Amino acid sequence: MNVTDRMIGQLTSGEREAALVICGVTALAGAALGLVGRHDVVAWHGLLILLFAGGFGFLLMTRIGLPEPTGDRGTSYYDDPIKAGITLAMAWAVFGMFMGVWVAAQLAWPDLAFDGGWSTFGRLRPTHTTGVIFGFGGNALIATSFHVVQRTSRARLAGQISPWFVLLGYNLFCLLAVSGYLLGVTQSKEYAEAEWYADLWLVIVWVTYFILYLRTLARRREPHIYVANWYFMAFIVVVAILHIVNNLALPVSWGHAKSYTIWPGVQDAMVQWWYGHNAVAFFLTAGFLGMLYYYLPVRAERPIFSYRLSILSFWGITFFYMWAGSHHLHYTALPHWVQTLGMTFSVMLLVPSWASAGNALLTLNGAWHRVRDDATLRFMMAAAVFYGISTFEGSFLAIRPVNALSHYTDWTVGHVHAGALGWVALITFGSFYTLVPRLWKRERMYSAALVEVHFWLSIAGTLIYVFAMWNSGIIQGLMWRTYTEDGALAYSFVDSLVAMYPYYIARAFGGLLFLIGAIVGCYNMWMTVRAVPEATRRAADEPVAAAVPGE
Amino acid sequence: MIDLDHQAVVAFSKSWGLFYLMGFFLCVVVYAFWPSNRKRFDHAKISILDRDDKPGKSRPWK
Fold first, then answer.
1. SS3 string of A297-366?
2. Nearest CA-CA distance, residue A347 and chain B, Å
3. Which of A4, A251, A325, A504 has its Cα between 20 and 30 A from that of A539?
4. Is the ipTM of this complex over 0.85?
5. Using an 8 Å Cβ cutoff, are A142 and A166 in contact?
6. Are strands A259-261 and A249-251 parallel, antiparallel or unpaired?
7. Assign residue A229 a region: left if phi > 0, alpha if psi is -120 to 50, beta otherwise?
8. Alpha-carbon gap, residue A175 to A181, rounded angstroms
9. Any chain A CB within 8 A of the CB of B32?
């Protein structure tokens, strides 16, 4: 019996039929989009939706006659979608990081675009950002949130099909986005490049995710909702709000990929960076703090240092971040007081950010020998350190006069990667190395040495990347503001570009090390599932049959 | 109709914006440090370390 058989075998025949109907409706919607838009590039996306939904429909149809699941499913956790989510996250990591190395190399050696329209820097760069943020990060968040909410609530996910709909529907969105960039489809909004039809689809997926999460929490057998869930909830709720408001747009027609935003001029800029910065806050921070507050204590086998502090920093982050976005628009047409507001809140953000980073490190206090011996725990420790460093840097860069030097330079790129590689990716790898043996019920990871190799490749890659960009960014910033005695600019833009050359090579090399680390991680996880013997089942691992009355 | 021009909105957000955030901050501090919440927080922080990997069967607090 293969994996697909086993996963579909978990569904009752009624659920299989319902899933088939969802696939059918989605495939029809794809076909309709393709037909209405047959004279436009959107036709390719109609075809993609049709094939994606049709493919899953086919899988279901060929297995519709499998035997019904036996036993009470409510007495076990629903782990199949989590396993699929981890697999997808790692696949997207390799894709997204490879695209990152490619575009980084293009900056040093422009010939690597190979004269193709689809392979120009402008089209490839968003495949990197979407691939790593939404493909890798998003799948990791969905997978770990499904795990954390079940374990902390001691309740099974409140649905059999909806977790699959969320996971696969989300991946359809990512595919639409990435393939669209190569075809030249983009809204030209950073981190919100996907066009209107993909955005509408994501709204349906995301609302399902939200309802699923709430319903699972409502089933909980614990009196208190553990703080990690608060972070995951903030991630889900705020991303929904941000996504809808920033993507309010009118398409040219139903059969046309292009749309126009309803926000005019400087309001558009403000809405975009309110979205953009809160995407950093609630996509790349809140959800990953959810991981930190669960997997770090679990791996260290020590409770979080201060639960109260985690509550205070949760509300601090939630309410301060909302106001920080305007620091992306210093010295623009945005009213001065709004810029000042963004700057002030960005500086205040340091308090709750360091509260979380400190809370994580103090949890490890007294277990440093385990951090030394266990590379998985060290991944999470390093993530907390990078979180502390990059939030400090972020607050600093948001100060208007500092921003005058740093904005539009590689310093910003270095800052983003200190956060994305050092914090987001490291906490994810640490969580996955904790999660994979537990989920597949293996005694341990296939190779502790390879986890160690992955850790050091990641650290070396991140440091090379960030130091290269610090150097490059500050040189750029200084060259752009150096005047001659006559008051003219001392350097042309091309002069600054030539000065960047060695740093661009170093950056591509750092990224390559990080990519190799991720590939090593994939191999290690694959071999863990394939080759490591099953852990002996603990007596307590047998779920209890009785269900709560009324469910 | 109330005249809601730019100046009025700015004045409102510059004054009440501060008060509601301060008020909210106080509420959160009170919640975090309320003595009777200590027990549930202490329970929550230990509960995730429980090794038994299965859904619960009852709602012990009811």
1. HHHHCCCCCCHHHHHHHHHHHHHHHCCCHHHHHCCCCCCHHHHHHHHHHHHHCHHHHHHHHHHHHHHHCC
2. 16
3. A4
4. yes
5. yes
6. antiparallel
7. alpha
8. 10
9. yes
Q: How far apart (Å, rounded) are the C-alpha atoms in residues B21 and A338?
A: 17
Residue contact A76–B55, C-beta within 8 A: yes
Q: Decide if B54 is inside a domain.
A: no
Q: Letter for the amino acid at A12?
A: T
Instruction: Answer yes or no: is B42 within a domain.
Output: yes
Residue B21 lies inside a defined structural domain of this protein: yes
* Alpha helices (runs of H) in B1-62, residue ranges in sequence order: 6-33, 38-47
The CATH fold assigned to A76-534 is: Cytochrome C Oxidase; Chain A (1.20.210)
Taking Cα atoms as reference points, which of A63, A42, A328 lies closest to residue A179?
A: A42
Q: What is the pLDDT of residue B10?
A: 82
Task: Name the residue range of residue B43's domain.
Answer: 6-47
Structure tokens at A71: 């036993």
Cross-chain residue pair B10–A337, CB shorter than 8 Å? yes
Whether A218 contacts chain B with CB within 8 A:
no
- B53 is written with which tokens? 């990997």
Tokens representing A4 are: 């697909």
User: Chain A within 8 Å of B33 (Cβ-Cβ)?
Assistant: yes
**Helices and strands counted in chain A (H then E):** 21, 2
The pLDDT, as a whole number, for residue A396 is: 97
Q: Phi/psi class of residue A114: alpha, beta or left (left: φ > 0; alpha: ψ in -120 to 50)?
A: left
Please tell me the predicted confidence (pLDDT) of residue A470.
97
Chain A contact for B39 (CB, 8 A cutoff): no
Q: Which residues contact A550 (CB under 8 A, 6 or more apart)?
A: none
Number of domains forming the structure of chain B: 1
Evaluate whether residue B60 is within a structural domain. no
Of A154, A302, A541, Cβ closest to residue B56: A154
pLDDT band for position B60 (50/70/90)?
low
Contact A543, B55 (CB under 8 A): yes
Q: What is the pLDDT of residue B61?
A: 56
What's the pLDDT score for residue A21? 97
Domain-by-domain residue ranges, chain A?
1-66, 76-534
* CB of B30 less than 8 A from some CB of A: no
* Centroid of chain to Cα A183: 23
Q: How far is B62 from chain A (nearest CA, A)?
A: 9
Judged by DSSP in three states, A249 sits in: strand
List, for chain A, all residue ranges whose pLDDT scores fall below the cut of 50: 539-551
Residues 2-21 of B with CB under 8 A from A: 10, 14, 21
Could you tell me the pLDDT band of residue B4, with boundaries at 50, 70 and 90? confident
Q: CA of B55, closest CA in chain A: separation in Å? A: 4
